[in-house]
């Protein structure tokens, strides 16, 4: 028995040693941004830190707990000189981090008072393959939108500097959210992208649909009265917010019709039930002919 146990235990000890070594490397919090509805953004710097879009890191804050490591998706782009995460306050550990960063105080927090942070990573996810396709569908559910913040930022940086080398030509972005709480910080990014793409006469590059899935008919009716206004009354975007859930069969058929003979990457960050639905649609809408349209499904569940 010991021969079978020694190998895995050795690998486990190596992994723990690597994590301990990484945790000792200095991480500097350069900025803490408080977003509405108790969501905070931590911008950090670490010597030798390199990332790709959609990756995640493990974070430990000794001031909150000396043993707990928690995974967070990176919301910054590789082109930026810092890396960032967005943390929504939903439990004891995140509440402790919120207070440790001084976000519960009204006065300005000095940088030297910010807590020490240990970071392990980054680690890869399926979202890294976004730039391998000419056409992609990005589907985020709730806070699952965070990896696509990194993707969209990186796309913008690449588009600004050298769009000729960018293989990715079209993005279909879907965001499903139960309420409007998460809109504030992410809508700003979409507004910036929307404005910049229009300035460069390439507004068709990004097609996005935002769905409010948790609203009843009376709430939706109130905002539908403002549907004719130039910008959406909730997000401030030109694209109007939709209510309910998307008809995935119609969405896949529409995209397949517009991109015949293409390999289309489908990327999800969301619950398992939605992953099953998108996987089935990807299979059923892919053609048997190798020269036909094919949907390649990639998922990241939470």
From TrEMBL:
A GO BP entry: defense response
Segments forming domain FAD-binding FR-type: 19-129
Protein topology in the membrane: Multi-pass membrane protein
Main location: membrane
Keyword Phosphoprotein: yes
Reaction catalysis annotation: NADPH + 2 O2 = 2 superoxide + NADP(+) + H(+)
Protein name: NADPH oxidase 2
